[in-house]
Amino acid sequence: MQVNGTNLKMTRGDSERIAVSLTGYTLQEGDVVEFTVRQTIYSDKPVLYKKITEFSDNTAYINILPEDTESLRFGKYVYDVQLTFNGAVKTIIKPSTFTIGEEVTYDNGN
To answer: In sequence order, which residues have a C-beta less than 8 Å from that of residue 16 and are 6 or more positions away?
Structure first.
């Protein structure tokens, strides 16, 4: 995973782990962190979605599995991260670029 500010780039089909931690708020039971990736901001259906409800050391770990990205086309997508807590909703990472990079080793049916 390459991180440049809030922009992320990963190789398609790889395993990745994104750590999201907060300053000024302690994640607790009942909180929800959502990681959503769409083709564009205006796309109806997410291409990748993760909901995190368990936290460790005030950090939400977003685990991306190979099967989460193996069918995605190479290129740029958009993502954000939202926190729901105490009845409030807050976008903690504003829409940013999520790039799926090329890979050479993958199963193409041969």
So the answer is: 1, 10, 63, 64
- Of 101, 99, 69, 91, the closest CA to residue 8 belongs to 99
Beta pairing class for 48-52 and 32-38: antiparallel
Query: Does residue 22 sit in helix, strand or coil?
Result: coil
**Tokens 């979605």 belong to which residue?**
49
Identify the three-state secondary structure at position 76: strand
**Got the DSSP string for 24-68?**
S----TT-EEEEEEESSTT-SS-SEEEEE---BTTEEEEEE-HHH
pLDDT for position 108: 63
What pairing do the DSSP bridges indicate for beta strands 88-101 and 16-21? unpaired
The pLDDT tens digits of the residues spanning 32-70 come to 999 999 999 999 999 999 999 999 999 999 999 999 999
pTM, to two decimals? 0.91
Task: Provide the total of helices (H) and of strands (E) in the chain, helices listed first.
Answer: 1, 8
